[in-house]
């Protein structure tokens, strides 16, 4: 669980940093999305992510079951079990289920455009999928912002426990290293949660970066990914 969990946390960190391009503007986010889409490592990475997510969920369910099986006849009273332990395992199962439901909704919403996303089909002036336009249009809706923020806070609760227990699960027991790794873990998790919670709110409040695209003449002043998009668009229009 710890190894797959760490892999998923790395994905969340990279995904959150990539999403921040929306604060820079249309060119930055759309060029980044196109770069991802055309990357030959996209499908291997997607399959790896799916395997990690599936394994993590399956191990979580198996762990909850084996905890129950360890005591086939239930205790007459569970009152001797520390309340904190009972609440924690219930919290992990509940928040885990919410994250699973969020990921299914999120893929249908932003990746496939199959639910509640009227702006999925739009393209920008350079003929790319307008991911910026889609995200901004969606985060103008207070219900979508509210549900993303709620899901991100529950993700934060799930990760908070992960940050406490992963060293124990991995069997690392050096006091100094433990303290340092726990602090690093907590810092990474805080960055992910703060980034993910604030992004929909910032966009809702109007902090979504520049909506305009660079022109051919200004192409020399933009980064290499934007340059490639501009060159492609110029080639296509010839
Ligand atoms: C505020 C938070 C988030 C925003 C704004 C966001 C935004 C997006 C967008 C725009 C896409 C589609 C990209 C494209 O079509 O080019 C996407 C894909 C995806 N997101 Fe998120 N996301 C957020 C949080 C999350 C979280 C918390 C998870 C996981 C628990 C997640 C998992 C994914 C996955 C698996 C994909 C599909 C990647 C692929 O195409 O292979 N996202 N996200």
Description:
The chain is mainly alpha-helical. The chain has one domain. Helices cover 71% and strands 0% of the residues. It is built from eight helices and no strands. The termini are far apart. Protoporphyrin IX containing FE binds at residues 12, 15, 19, 33, 46, 99, 103, 106-107, 110-111, 131, 135, 148, 152, 155, 196, 199-200.
Structural class: mainly alpha
**Shape, principal axes of CA atoms:** elongated
Low-confidence runs: none
| Count, helices | 8
Estimated helix fraction: over 70%
* Beta fraction: under 5%
Main sheet characteristics? none
Write down the Rg: 21 Å
Number of domains: 1
Mean pLDDT: 84
End-to-end CA span: 53 Å
- Topology as a string of helices (H) and strands (E): HHHHHHHH
Instruction: Name the hetero compounds present.
Output: protoporphyrin IX containing FE
Number of strands: 0
């Amino acid at each position: 669980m710890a190894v797959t969990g760490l892999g998923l946390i790395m994905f969340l960190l990279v995904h959150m940093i990539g999403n921040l391009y929306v604060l820079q503007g249309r060119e930055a986010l759309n060029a980044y999305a196109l770069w991802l889409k055309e990357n030959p490592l996209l499908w291997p990475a997607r399959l790896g992510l799916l395997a990690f997510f599936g394994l993590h969920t399956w191990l979580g369910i198996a762990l909850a079951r084996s905890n129950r099986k360890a005591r086939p006849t239930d205790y007459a009273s569970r009152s001797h079990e520390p309340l904190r332990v009972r609440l924690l395992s219930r919290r992990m199962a509940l928040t885990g289920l919410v994250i699973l439901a969020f990921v299914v909704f999120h893929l249908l919403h932003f990746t496939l455009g199959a639910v509640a996303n009227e702006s999925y089909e739009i393209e920008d002036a350079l003929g790319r999928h307008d991911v910026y336009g889609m995200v901004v249009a969606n985060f103008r809706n207070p219900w979508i912002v509210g549900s993303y923020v709620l899901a991100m806070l529950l993700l934060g609760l799930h990760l908070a426990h992960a940050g406490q227990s992963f060293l124990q699960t991995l069997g690392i027991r050096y006091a100094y290293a433990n303290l340092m790794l726990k602090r690093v873990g907590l810092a990474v998790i805080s960055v992910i949660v703060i980034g993910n919670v604030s992004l929909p709110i910032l966009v809702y409040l109007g902090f979504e970066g520049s909506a305009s695209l660079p022109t051919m003449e200004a192409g020399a002043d933009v980064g290499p990914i934007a340059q490639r998009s501009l060159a492609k668009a110029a080639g296509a229009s010839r």
